[in-house]
């Protein structure tokens, strides 16, 4: 037993050397001790020599078997499972259609005055016993559907769980980043979930049918839109989990405005919270989710990474004029990339201040704070000058994290600023009054969200 173990270690040592030299095949060795191939490795002196201890040794190895972790097979299985799920959904769709047709049929038969049987009378309106084609399988269909639905929802749960554990283990082995695979699967699961919901709502006319979809709700919501889909319609703080590896956190959800499902990432209402903050503060977020806050760059990154997001900015100036800017694409990179902003696809009434001109464009700009200069202004820090954390260019045509002024102000333009606001150009001179904003909100929602 000990011998086998020693020989195994040797095999591993050799493998590591092959790997290190870069000449080995790319792949992964299953490092579990006791692999059967070990017993076939032979170690013996190569040729004749006096003192055994100093003899050169020759190693004969059987062809090296490289074993991929079995998680790879699981992955394939998951993909197949999803495929079959899709087929189940299609089957369901047609059997549902069948079901509705039969109901129509049923009504026609009733209208035509066919005398109902004894059994039917006792079961009343919801009876499905009137048989089309003399077939007696309506209840079977409904029951089948129920079974399929149940199986499907638990399969979905399984697929999801498998992907999660799979990703953790694969990363442990440092094999490959499954992020893409997960995204694809997530999207498929989302698609299927959507289809199942659609079917379940069109199928409600089938009597006796109780779809058990609550299993699906075990997938933790990734943002406010998922919570909204579950029927939550109240504006308040909820927990979301955009990426299970990074845990959950609290966000404020706007479930009422413009179809709801919005995850609010920034809010200004009365100047109670200072936005002149450090990199560390902007990274983790600050303020109070129920009043004024910056959600935090890490969280914004995770949310915009989990799904393709749109951004909606709501503005109201001190005189009560309102406007909005909507961007069909919004993404914030990770800290390593200085939380670079990607924003495009403007529409709205407030003007496209984030992409004001060639010289003032916040798209693709890094995040800058008073203590961390990543802006394009060569001889100073825009964040320090304006007392704000923002995706400064050199420096800005918009800055929603500026100082909160209750009324119009003069001098340095360090207030909340939106460069395409009506009359903004006439405020160019420091001697003129500058607009103050009493309400600012930045919120995001998945691009494919359908309220
Ligand atoms: C009745 O339904 C069963 C199963 O759904 C099917 O095998 C059978 O062919 C059907 N019979 C008729 C007469 O349609
Ligand atoms: C989701 O469903 C739509 C419509 O059936 C389809 O066009 C799209 O390709 C699907 N997406 C994925 C990721 O399967
Ligand atoms: C700001 O608004 C919040 C929430 O409405 C409130 O709790 C807080 O007292 C207000 N602060 C100031 C300074 O008005
Ligand atoms: C999320 O978790 C991954 C894996 O643990 C980690 O590498 C990454 O830095 C985390 N990201 C954030 C924004 O916390
Ligand atoms: C920001 O705060 C720092 C101290 O925390 C202060 O020195 C600086 O003047 C402030 N900047 C602005 C523009 O208000
Ligand atoms: C626009 O700005 C000019 C100059 O500051 C001012 O006289 C005028 O009242 C402003 N108009 C509006 C609609 O705010």
From TrEMBL:
InterPro entries found in the cross-reference section: Fibrinogen-like_C, Fibrinogen_a/b/g_C_1, Fibrinogen_a/b/g_C_dom, Fibrinogen_C-term_domain, Fibrinogen_CS
* UniProt key word Disulfide bond: yes
Q: Which UniProt keywords apply?
A: Coiled coil, Disulfide bond, Signal
Identify the stretch annotated as signal peptide in this record. 1-20
Q: Which PROSITE patterns match?
A: FIBRINOGEN_C_1, FIBRINOGEN_C_2
- At the top level of its lineage, which domain of life is listed? Eukaryota
Disordered, as annotated region:
108-138
Annotated Polar residues bias: 122-138
Which stretches are annotated as coiled coil? 142-176
Q: What is this protein called?
A: Fibrinogen-like 2
Organism for this UniProt entry: Danio rerio
Which taxonomic lineage does the organism of this UniProt entry have?
A: Eukaryota, Metazoa, Chordata, Craniata, Vertebrata
């Amino acid at each position: 037993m000990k011998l086998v173990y020693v020989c195994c270690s040797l095999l591993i040592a050799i493998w590591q050397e092959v790997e290190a030299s870069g000449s080995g095949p790319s792949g992964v060795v299953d490092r579990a001790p006791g692999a059967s191939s070990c017993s076939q490795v032979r170690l013996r002196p190569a040729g004749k020599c006096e003192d055994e201890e100093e003899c050169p040794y020759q190693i004969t190895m059987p062809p090296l078997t490289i074993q991929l972790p079995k998680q790879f097979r699981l992955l394939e299985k998951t993909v197949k499972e999803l495929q079959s799920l899709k087929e189940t959904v299609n089957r369901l769709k047609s059997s549902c259609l069948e079901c509705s047709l039969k109901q129509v049929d049923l009504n026609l038969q009733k209208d035509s005055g066919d005398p109902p049987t004894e059994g039917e009378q006792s079961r009343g309106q919801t009876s499905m016993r009137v048989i089309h084609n003399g077939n007696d399988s309506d209840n079977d269909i409904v029951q089948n559907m129920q079974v399929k639905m149940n199986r499907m929802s638990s399969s979905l749960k399984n697929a999801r769980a498998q992907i999660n554990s799979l990703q953790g283990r694969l990363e442990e082995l440092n094999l490959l980043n499954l992020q893409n695979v997960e995204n694809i699967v997530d999207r498929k699961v989302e698609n299927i979930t959507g289809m199942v919901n659609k079917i379940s709502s069109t199928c409600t006319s089938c009597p006796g049918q109780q779809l058990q979809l609550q299993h699906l709700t075990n997938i933790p919501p990734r943002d406010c839109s998922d919570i909204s889909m579950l029927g939550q319609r109240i504006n308040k703080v909820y927990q979301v989990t955009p990426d299970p590896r990074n845990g959950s956190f609290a966000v404020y959800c706007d479930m009422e405005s413009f179809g709801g499902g919005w995850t609010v990432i920034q809010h200004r209402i009365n100047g109670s919270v200072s936005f002149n903050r450090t990199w560390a503060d902007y990274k983790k977020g600050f303020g109070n989710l129920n009043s004024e806050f910056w959600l935090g760059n890490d969280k914004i990154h995770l949310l915009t990474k989990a799904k393709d997001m749109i951004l909606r900015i709501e503005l109201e100036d001190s005189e009560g004029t309102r406007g909005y800017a909507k961007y069909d694409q919004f993404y914030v990179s990770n800290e390593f990339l200085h939380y670079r902003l990607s924003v495009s696809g403007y529409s709205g009434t407030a003007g496209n201040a984030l992409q004001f001109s060639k010289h003032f464009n916040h798209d693709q700009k890094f995040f800058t704070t008073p203590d961390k200069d990543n802006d394009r202004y060569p001889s100073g820090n825009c964040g320090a000058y304006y007392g704000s954390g923002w995706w400064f260019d050199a420096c800005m045509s918009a800055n929603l994290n500026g100082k909160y002024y209750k009324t119009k102000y003069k001098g340095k333009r360090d207030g909340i600023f939106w460069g395409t606001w009506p009359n903004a150009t006439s405020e160019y001179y420091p001697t003129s009054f500058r607009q103050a904003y009493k309400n600012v909100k930045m919120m995001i929602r998945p691009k494919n969200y359908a309220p």
